[in-house]
Amino acid sequence: MSWTKLTLQVRTPLFGGDDPRHDDGGAVRVPSIRGVLRFWFRAVASGHHVSDLGEIWKAEQAVFGSTSTPSVIRLRIPKQPTVSSQHRKPDWAISERLAKRPGFDGAQYLLGQGLWDYERGLRRGCVEPGQSFDLDIRFDRDEQVNSRFMLALWAWLTYGGLGCRTRRGFGQLVCTAVDGDLPCHWTLDNLKPPSGVAGWENLGACAVPDLLPGRAALGWGDLLQAPPPKTDSHPEIPTLSPRWWAGTVLETRAGSLGEALHRAGLRWRRFRAADDDARGRKPSQNTRSPEWLNSIHGDDDRYPIAAFGLPIGYFSSASGFKATVTPELGGAPLRRASPVWLRPILLPKGRWGVFTHVFYSRLLPKDAVLRISTGTSTLSVPSDEVVEEAWDCWLHGDPRLPDDYFPRREHA
Asked: How far apart are CA 224 and CA 207, in angstroms?
């Protein structure tokens, strides 16, 4: 089989590599791409009635290989994109309105302390927006294998990204050209994201369009459609289907990527802190969440903020207090990536918006506990109903918690 070349353009800054202290061969690595494609493969497979984890693993192995068997679909990157230097403050990381008067910046908040230093700027280099690189693919002769691979590729390019902070909007790629043949009647147009708000809203409702090519060759059932009753248990893994996933375009519009990142970060911060006005332009002086006041510094064992990812760290510069809430199972620590994804989207006339989507999958395994690092006390894992309500509130633009969820306390 001959090679097919996909030209992928970086749309939002890409922070590649697993560890900035080591030279791992470049910002974009084939193993990393295979890793994210495996994630989206599992998501699209489980969204098509493949619910048994063993069956999903067998199907994944047939496409991507295993530790003992190489993948039947080959990937290569002929030339690495250029990585910019660290310790600088690029335009996309500084909101236009804050350029003259420093203050909270949503892009810096989304980067987090691991990637942003408030004095020196970026802690590590990145591939800047606008750069392109080629991904060469050699497909298999099996139509079913190729069809399943292409659907995973589509889901990755549409909803995901590459590198660090992909769930917060970084590392997005757009396919701008195809040189060679794509299998199962796929074309470049099929791989491109929507160009307007209406197209993204349609995606947020259907998850996987019926008109994508190669659906008949998948060999799976139809896409899970109807929203489940509240009594249904969430699936064990992220599932891309209208039944267990939802997406929407946030109402904010911006004239630049930096402003879109700022507004997305501002909204996310205020939502997590349960500010009274989650749509306000400025965060309040108090950015401590109700859980900080009532669960970390109080005697309430409820911890609904766990719905948005674990572990969660706390630090007070005023008192020097530090703590981490970590999920554990049988004494072993766990991690739970946030089910909420943010994706800046380029709209017509150079405007920017933000598409957000949520996987309604199980938060933690049965019998898991939440432990606070400052002692032996534990917090309650929120129920499926509690976390589902929290995810719904994010998508609908509602406050994260009702006013009377926790008793009123003075700021700690």
From this structure: 10
CA distance 257 to 94: 10
> How many whole angstroms from its chain centre is CA 35?
14
Helix residue spans in 188-293 (DSSP H) = 188-191, 197-206, 257-273, 290-291
pLDDT digits (tens, 9 = 90+) for 237-262: 999 999 999 999 999 899 999 999 99
Q: Which runs of consecutive H residues, i.e. helices, occur in 160-256?
A: 188-191, 197-206
Q: Torsion angle of alpha carbons 42, 47, 51, 56, nearest 10°?
A: -30
Domain locations along the chain: 4-82+126-217, 91-122, 250-396
Nearest one of 12, 10, 345, 354 to 175, comparing CA atoms: 10
Q: How far, in Å, CA of 290 to CA of 271, rounded?
A: 11
Judge contact between 204 and 246, C-beta under 8 A. Answer: yes
Sheet order of strands, 173-179 included: 74-76, 132-138, 4-10, 173-179
Q: Which tokens sit at 358?
A: 């949520």
Q: H or E element: which one contains 41?
A: helix 30-46
| Helix or strand (DSSP H, E) at 161 | none
Residues in contact with 129: Cβ distance below 8 Å, sequence separation at least 6, in sequence order: 10, 11, 12, 13, 92, 257
Query: 269-306: buried (b, 16+ CB within 10 Å) or exposed (e) per residue?
Result: bbbbbbbeebeeeebeeeeebbbbbbbbbeebebbbbb
pLDDT in tens, 63-113: 999 988 999 999 999 999 999 999 999 999 987 655 555 678 999 999 998
3-state secondary structure at position 351 = coil
φ/ψ of residue 40, rounded to 5:
-75, -30
SS3 17: coil
> CATH topology for 4-82+126-217?
Alpha-Beta Plaits (3.30.70)
How many H-runs (helices) and E-runs (strands) does the chain carry?
A: 9, 14
Asked if 307 and 359 touch (Cβ cutoff 8 Å), the reply is: no
Whether the pTM exceeds 0.85: the reply is yes
Q: How far apart, in whole angstroms, are the C-alpha atoms of residue 313 and residue 326? A: 9
Question: Quick check: helix, strand or coil at residue 98?
Answer: helix
Burial of 352 (0-12, 13-18, 19+ CB in 10 A): buried
DSSP per residue over 280-295, as a string? Answer: -SS--S----HHIIII
Rounded distance between C-alpha atoms, residue 201 and residue 266, angstroms: 22
